[in-house]
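EI: anyone free to look at a 719-residue chain?
SC: sure, send it
EI:
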Amino acid sequence: MVENRRALASAPKTWSTPAVLPIPQQPERTELIEQWHQRCSALGLTRIERPDFEPLMRSDLALARERNQRLFTHAAPVMEMLFEQIVDTESMIVLADVSGTILHSVGDDKFLQRADKVALTPGVNWAEHSKGTNAIGTTLFEEAPTVVHGGEHFIHANNFLTCSAAPIFDPRGNMLGVLDVTGDQRSYHQHTMGLVRMSARMIENQWLSDDYGNRLRLHFHSRVEFIGTLLEGIIVVGGDGKILGANRSALDQLDMSSAALRMHSLTSLFGTTAPAVFDHFRSPLPTPMTLCLSSGRPFHVNARFNGPQRSMVMEPQITSPVIDTAAPRRDADGGGKRYGTLAGDTAQSADGTLFSGLHYLNTGDPQIATLVQKVQRVINRDIPLLILGETGTGKELLARAVHQDSNRAKQPFVAVNCASIPESLIEAELFGYEDGAFTGARRKGAVGRIVQANGGTLFLDEIGDMPLPLQARLLRVLQERNVTPLGSLKAIPVDIAVIGATHRKLRDMIDAGTFREDLYYRLNGLVVRLPALRDRCDLDVVARRILQAECPHATPGISPQVMALFKAYAWPGNVRQLANVLRTASVMAAGEGQISEHHLSDDFLEDVQSARHSRPAVASLSMSVGQTGADVLQAPVQHLPHVPQSAASPDIYAVPPGSVTEPRQAAMEAAAPRTLGEAEVDLIRKTLADANGNISVASKRLGISRNTIYRKLRWGQKE
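SC: here you go
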């Protein structure tokens, strides 16, 4: 080791000594910076060449923000408060996700302009493989708070910066992202890192309270005056007395890792039980408890619990831990929750209705009802599930609901997006690796996602984007139920339920040689397809449940005009787009009780208007109703070119021939004046008659879905 240090000391430096060092220049610091820079060189970076500074496309950035919506919701107010502490110091605050992509930034206007020149802006990736040594990327690699000052940056263009960053972890020890303060190196202050670390802990504590708001939480410290501060430890206790999670201060005080702490129960850790804790704090003015570890070390403890004690002590309902940093949940104030609440998470409406499981996905659409029935039959049968559907239809929601209703609900749900992980890293991400397995590997290695899912469910999203060479390894893992980390000779047995999802046509990929046929048949034990939102007849129910999740205590209604506009829209982004529209509208309509058209965002209204004008006018419909061309453009049902009737078998829901007779049709056409809705129903009935009552053929001729026909005919009958 001494010889290695001497060799490093005699080797030429790759970095220049900063004018003002945040840390005294010591041999250990010099050696550490050299190691960082050597790692960057091994990644193929150079100090003088500008790497690709192109940010993500707007749609990709929006997707990244959506995946990290919960992180942003907790971090944004903390960032604003932190900015008040460093205002007018030529600095900025940056929030990055676990991949190093900048999600949000606030700062002094002049410095933000300077930061733009080195692409320190939202949408740009600052991981080490992209930007070399920097506080964000190096913190992600080291999983520890990091200061990078001036010339310590690998790329010369960044040498004017001084950066202090701290990682953000969830209660189970999984990294969520990075909080960073960056400024001009001349404005460096030694207390900046302390502020960043405190802010990161605030975010972590809010995340813990959000995750376990209905669980018993013990707030403790060896000094009673520190309870209620950022220095207090917090552990979460499940209904069976087991430790579910903890904040970083708790891990530091107990000197345990997150995994080791979760092996304990309240009894094995502190020698007490949940009922005993409740009994102590039942008095009107309870004092902190004094609990001791097995070593005899005492702690002062306060308890907090937001739910009914009976459900905690007698009737525990344990939900599964989720190892998916992209999975947002309901915020403590009831806001900021995305539509993921519909299946994977657990929330409550004002009347106490539980939002969880497959039963909640069944919203009255016959296609969804059939799908749910199929899925319920294979739960706990060790049959793989493959979910197909367009982007935004809720494939991950269905996967989480399946996990929640299975016997594995108490175990982890691990979601892996095969399309978002670089091809060079996805193997290490899935299978894990040992120390020194490859250049740039973390010290002590890393546990792969498959091992993290042991006992629970592994959700492989966008499985069609998995590289072909990696498909063979995944197939072997699924067959043998063993995984071998990179650089290791020891196989680790795993017990996982596998759910795959994709929007691609896997059979076409098999024919093209880009997807393995044997892996396809391993994954498709049961294949289900989620319908697009435009093909469903339960839009009003879905919208209402999204609003209940967004605003559980004061759920606004939707005006008939807005609902009619929603039903006429094609929803290219499906449920995800609907959730985003309603989230914005619910905020704009706060306190008004009903969402009206003026509460909708301008870009959505523009999309609706452009979609209307892009449809061909229906000349025959215009003539029958006696309306102008502008009126016809408002019609949600359009008559597309005639599709010849196929020789397919009659639809099981076909209307019997003769049920729509020609005399009745002629009488209806002669009636005047008529509304546009009545004319639509007439057109549908006439087309059905021409198709001999076959709804499938009629839907093709009209260019609308079968569910739309069902809905229009039911509406016509009510009229």
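EI: The chain is about 40% helix and 15% strand.
SC: 👍
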